User: What shape does this take?
Amino acid sequence: MSDKVKVTTSKKAFRSSPVRNYRVGSRKLYITAFDSENSYDPNGVAVEGLIEVNLTLSNEITSFLADDNLSYITLTGPTTGTGTIRVTDMPIEALQYLANVEVTNNGTIYGSDVELPHCAFKYEEQVSISGQSGKSIDCTVIFDATISISNFIAKANDGKSIADVTLNLTINPVTYMDLQGVERSVTMFRTNSERHKATYAKFTKGIQFPSWELLHEIETTEPPMEDVL
Assistant: This one.
Protein backbone atom coordinates (compact mmCIF):
# COMPACT_ATOMS: atom_id res chain seq x y z
CA MET A 1 0.00 0.00 0.00
CA SER A 2 1.29 3.51 -0.76
CA ASP A 3 1.99 5.98 2.01
CA LYS A 4 -0.95 8.14 0.92
CA VAL A 5 -4.27 6.34 0.76
CA LYS A 6 -6.60 7.53 -1.97
CA VAL A 7 -10.23 7.31 -0.97
CA THR A 8 -13.02 6.85 -3.48
CA THR A 9 -16.57 8.10 -3.10
CA SER A 10 -17.60 4.62 -1.96
CA LYS A 11 -18.70 5.17 1.60
CA LYS A 12 -21.08 3.59 4.06
CA ALA A 13 -22.09 5.09 7.38
CA PHE A 14 -24.28 3.79 10.15
CA ARG A 15 -25.01 4.38 13.80
CA SER A 16 -23.56 1.96 16.30
CA SER A 17 -25.90 -0.05 18.50
CA PRO A 18 -27.14 2.51 21.04
CA VAL A 19 -26.30 2.28 24.72
CA ARG A 20 -29.50 2.72 26.72
CA ASN A 21 -29.44 4.08 30.25
CA TYR A 22 -32.87 3.97 31.90
CA ARG A 23 -33.32 4.72 35.59
CA VAL A 24 -36.50 5.22 37.64
CA GLY A 25 -36.29 6.50 41.18
CA SER A 26 -32.93 8.18 40.77
CA ARG A 27 -32.13 10.97 43.17
CA LYS A 28 -29.98 14.02 43.77
CA LEU A 29 -30.13 15.47 40.28
CA TYR A 30 -27.59 18.30 40.12
CA ILE A 31 -27.46 20.80 37.24
CA THR A 32 -24.87 23.49 36.67
CA ALA A 33 -23.63 25.78 33.89
CA PHE A 34 -20.74 24.75 31.59
CA ASP A 35 -18.69 27.55 30.08
CA SER A 36 -16.23 27.71 27.18
CA GLU A 37 -13.22 27.69 29.53
CA ASN A 38 -13.77 24.02 30.44
CA SER A 39 -15.11 24.80 33.88
CA TYR A 40 -18.43 24.59 35.70
CA ASP A 41 -20.35 27.03 37.84
CA PRO A 42 -19.75 25.88 41.45
CA ASN A 43 -23.19 27.19 42.43
CA GLY A 44 -25.35 24.61 40.69
CA VAL A 45 -28.87 23.59 41.65
CA ALA A 46 -29.71 20.32 43.44
CA VAL A 47 -33.09 18.65 42.85
CA GLU A 48 -34.35 16.17 45.43
CA GLY A 49 -37.64 15.11 43.80
CA LEU A 50 -38.34 11.79 42.08
CA ILE A 51 -36.25 11.47 38.92
CA GLU A 52 -36.74 9.28 35.85
CA VAL A 53 -33.80 9.24 33.43
CA ASN A 54 -33.89 7.81 29.90
CA LEU A 55 -30.69 8.33 27.85
CA THR A 56 -29.52 6.85 24.54
CA LEU A 57 -25.85 7.13 23.50
CA SER A 58 -24.44 6.11 20.12
CA ASN A 59 -21.72 7.04 17.66
CA GLU A 60 -21.47 7.13 13.88
CA ILE A 61 -19.19 4.61 12.20
CA THR A 62 -18.09 5.44 8.64
CA SER A 63 -16.24 3.07 6.31
CA PHE A 64 -14.33 4.21 3.21
CA LEU A 65 -13.17 1.90 0.40
CA ALA A 66 -9.60 2.77 -0.65
CA ASP A 67 -8.58 2.54 -4.34
CA ASP A 68 -5.53 0.40 -3.67
CA ASN A 69 -7.01 -1.80 -0.96
CA LEU A 70 -10.09 -4.00 -1.10
CA SER A 71 -10.76 -3.58 2.62
CA TYR A 72 -12.58 -0.67 4.19
CA ILE A 73 -10.98 2.02 6.32
CA THR A 74 -13.28 2.46 9.30
CA LEU A 75 -13.56 5.72 11.24
CA THR A 76 -15.52 6.04 14.45
CA GLY A 77 -17.08 9.36 15.34
CA PRO A 78 -17.57 10.77 18.82
CA THR A 79 -20.29 9.42 21.10
CA THR A 80 -23.35 11.65 21.30
CA GLY A 81 -26.74 11.17 22.87
CA THR A 82 -30.31 12.21 23.40
CA GLY A 83 -32.76 11.59 26.17
CA THR A 84 -35.29 12.81 28.68
CA ILE A 85 -35.31 13.46 32.39
CA ARG A 86 -38.62 13.65 34.24
CA VAL A 87 -38.37 15.50 37.52
CA THR A 88 -40.88 16.20 40.28
CA ASP A 89 -40.51 19.20 42.58
CA MET A 90 -37.77 20.98 40.61
CA PRO A 91 -36.86 24.37 42.16
CA ILE A 92 -37.76 27.27 39.89
CA GLU A 93 -34.18 28.57 40.11
CA ALA A 94 -32.99 25.46 38.26
CA LEU A 95 -34.83 26.71 35.17
CA GLN A 96 -32.00 29.15 34.41
CA TYR A 97 -30.11 26.23 32.82
CA LEU A 98 -32.89 25.46 30.34
CA ALA A 99 -32.95 26.70 26.76
CA ASN A 100 -36.43 28.18 26.57
CA VAL A 101 -36.58 29.67 30.07
CA GLU A 102 -34.86 32.82 31.34
CA VAL A 103 -34.75 33.79 35.02
CA THR A 104 -34.47 37.58 35.49
CA ASN A 105 -34.54 39.95 38.45
CA ASN A 106 -38.22 40.55 37.73
CA GLY A 107 -39.42 36.99 37.24
CA THR A 108 -39.21 33.96 34.97
CA ILE A 109 -39.67 34.21 31.19
CA TYR A 110 -40.96 31.09 29.47
CA GLY A 111 -40.33 30.79 25.74
CA SER A 112 -37.31 33.07 25.94
CA ASP A 113 -35.07 33.45 22.88
CA VAL A 114 -31.83 33.61 24.86
CA GLU A 115 -28.83 31.69 23.54
CA LEU A 116 -29.00 27.95 24.14
CA PRO A 117 -26.93 27.36 27.30
CA HIS A 118 -24.66 24.38 27.84
CA CYS A 119 -24.81 22.63 31.17
CA ALA A 120 -23.58 19.56 33.02
CA PHE A 121 -25.57 17.31 35.29
CA LYS A 122 -25.24 14.28 37.53
CA TYR A 123 -27.64 12.00 39.33
CA GLU A 124 -27.40 9.09 41.74
CA GLU A 125 -29.13 5.81 42.51
CA GLN A 126 -28.67 3.10 45.11
CA VAL A 127 -27.37 -0.23 43.78
CA SER A 128 -26.28 -3.60 45.11
CA ILE A 129 -22.73 -4.83 44.46
CA SER A 130 -22.38 -8.52 43.64
CA GLY A 131 -20.73 -10.46 46.44
CA GLN A 132 -21.09 -7.62 48.97
CA SER A 133 -23.69 -6.90 51.58
CA GLY A 134 -25.52 -3.60 51.78
CA LYS A 135 -26.01 -0.87 49.24
CA SER A 136 -23.75 1.52 47.39
CA ILE A 137 -24.40 4.59 45.24
CA ASP A 138 -23.80 4.94 41.50
CA CYS A 139 -23.12 8.51 40.38
CA THR A 140 -23.63 9.23 36.66
CA VAL A 141 -22.16 12.40 35.15
CA ILE A 142 -22.93 14.07 31.81
CA PHE A 143 -20.26 16.71 31.15
CA ASP A 144 -21.94 18.73 28.38
CA ALA A 145 -25.61 18.90 27.37
CA THR A 146 -28.24 21.32 26.17
CA ILE A 147 -31.68 21.05 27.74
CA SER A 148 -35.16 22.30 26.92
CA ILE A 149 -38.57 21.79 28.47
CA SER A 150 -41.34 19.74 26.86
CA ASN A 151 -43.76 19.57 29.81
CA PHE A 152 -44.12 21.94 32.73
CA ILE A 153 -46.54 21.95 35.68
CA ALA A 154 -45.96 24.78 38.16
CA LYS A 155 -46.95 24.39 41.81
CA ALA A 156 -45.93 25.47 45.31
CA ASN A 157 -44.78 23.57 48.39
CA ASP A 158 -44.08 25.13 51.81
CA GLY A 159 -44.10 28.57 50.22
CA LYS A 160 -41.53 27.61 47.55
CA SER A 161 -42.15 27.75 43.79
CA ILE A 162 -41.47 24.35 42.24
CA ALA A 163 -42.49 22.46 39.11
CA ASP A 164 -42.87 18.98 37.62
CA VAL A 165 -40.97 19.05 34.33
CA THR A 166 -39.83 16.85 31.46
CA LEU A 167 -36.42 17.85 30.14
CA ASN A 168 -35.26 17.05 26.60
CA LEU A 169 -31.51 16.54 26.33
CA THR A 170 -28.92 16.71 23.57
CA ILE A 171 -25.68 15.25 24.92
CA ASN A 172 -22.25 16.19 23.58
CA PRO A 173 -18.74 14.84 24.20
CA VAL A 174 -15.98 16.91 25.76
CA THR A 175 -12.25 16.44 25.15
CA TYR A 176 -9.25 16.15 27.46
CA MET A 177 -5.58 15.18 27.06
CA ASP A 178 -4.04 11.85 28.00
CA LEU A 179 -0.53 11.51 29.43
CA GLN A 180 1.00 11.58 25.93
CA GLY A 181 -0.79 14.78 25.00
CA VAL A 182 -3.27 12.97 22.73
CA GLU A 183 -6.81 14.32 22.69
CA ARG A 184 -9.43 11.95 24.13
CA SER A 185 -13.18 12.37 24.44
CA VAL A 186 -15.76 11.39 27.04
CA THR A 187 -19.55 11.71 26.97
CA MET A 188 -20.78 9.97 30.11
CA PHE A 189 -19.02 8.82 33.28
CA ARG A 190 -20.24 6.57 36.08
CA THR A 191 -18.49 5.95 39.38
CA ASN A 192 -19.49 4.05 42.54
CA SER A 193 -19.29 5.06 46.20
CA GLU A 194 -17.80 1.71 47.28
CA ARG A 195 -15.77 0.49 44.29
CA HIS A 196 -14.26 3.92 43.49
CA LYS A 197 -14.39 5.77 46.81
CA ALA A 198 -11.74 8.41 46.04
CA THR A 199 -13.20 9.28 42.65
CA TYR A 200 -16.79 9.29 43.89
CA ALA A 201 -15.83 11.72 46.67
CA LYS A 202 -14.63 14.25 44.08
CA PHE A 203 -18.16 14.50 42.66
CA THR A 204 -20.07 14.80 45.93
CA LYS A 205 -20.01 18.63 45.95
CA GLY A 206 -20.22 19.37 42.24
CA ILE A 207 -18.90 18.43 38.80
CA GLN A 208 -15.26 18.45 37.73
CA PHE A 209 -14.07 18.83 34.16
CA PRO A 210 -12.64 15.47 32.98
CA SER A 211 -8.92 14.79 32.99
CA TRP A 212 -6.77 11.70 32.58
CA GLU A 213 -6.14 11.61 36.33
CA LEU A 214 -9.83 11.91 37.16
CA LEU A 215 -11.06 9.23 34.74
CA HIS A 216 -8.20 6.71 34.74
CA GLU A 217 -5.77 6.95 37.64
CA ILE A 218 -7.70 5.24 40.41
CA GLU A 219 -6.40 3.50 43.51
CA THR A 220 -4.82 0.12 42.81
CA THR A 221 -6.81 -1.47 45.62
CA GLU A 222 -10.09 -0.76 43.84
CA PRO A 223 -11.76 -3.21 41.44
CA PRO A 224 -12.22 -2.39 37.76
CA MET A 225 -12.21 1.05 36.24
CA GLU A 226 -15.26 3.29 36.17
CA ASP A 227 -17.63 3.19 33.21
CA VAL A 228 -16.47 5.70 30.60
CA LEU A 229 -18.29 6.24 27.30
